[in-house]
Specification:
By secondary structure, the protein is mainly alpha-helical. The protein is 55% helix and 2% strand. A hairpin with a 2-residue loop joins strand 1 and strand 2.
Length: 160
């Protein structure tokens, strides 16, 4: 399949990998190394989402009236995800610049994406979606906020 993600022996092959810490590094250096990997991974995830959004923007122009059918036939995700990518790119890149960037050179595209990804302060893609109003964060029901919720004290029977 020409549109499938590369798989090796039934497992998903990672398209991105991180360099492990150098041999002999002290614990603090290893921790700092993985912290930097985590920060860069967030920026990379946002850059990848913006790239997907730009490609979808181009596909939407190329397939007027049949774009949703095109998504179903060609993408490994649903229509809602495609529109989230589009919303992200349309909020990140101004409407007057987006067509020029989408149809421009790879260098122009990457410069715009890097500029925006660097401004996100290593947020996760979900946090970015919430900040831009693309999705709403659902309140957590964990943590014992209700009366009588949470673990009882060990000596609760003796205390009463």
């Amino acid at each position: 399949m020409k549109n499938a993600v590369v798989k090796a022996k039934g497992k998903k092959k990672y398209l991105v990998s991180a360099e492990p810490p150098a041999a002999g590094m002290e614990a603090a250096a290893r921790i700092n190394h993985w912290h930097e990997v985590a920060k860069q991974s967030s920026e990379m995830a946002i850059a990848a989402a913006l790239n997907a959004g730009i490609e979808l923007f181009k596909a939407k122009i190329d397939h007027p009236g049949t774009f949703e059918k095109w998504i179903e036939a060609n993408c490994d995700f649903d229509r809602r995800t495609a529109y989230r990518y589009l919303a992200l790119v349309q909020q990140a890149i101004s409407a007057d610049k987006l067509p020029k960037i989408a149809n421009g050179s790879e260098k122009l595209r990457q410069a715009a994406i890097e500029e925006y990804a660097a401004e996100t302060d290593s947020k996760s893609l979900t946090e970015l979606y919430c900040d831009l109003g693309i999705i709403k964060k659902t309140p957590s029901k964990m943590g014992g906020k209700r009366e009588g919720a949470g673990r009882k004290r060990k000596n609760a029977a003796e205390d009463e």
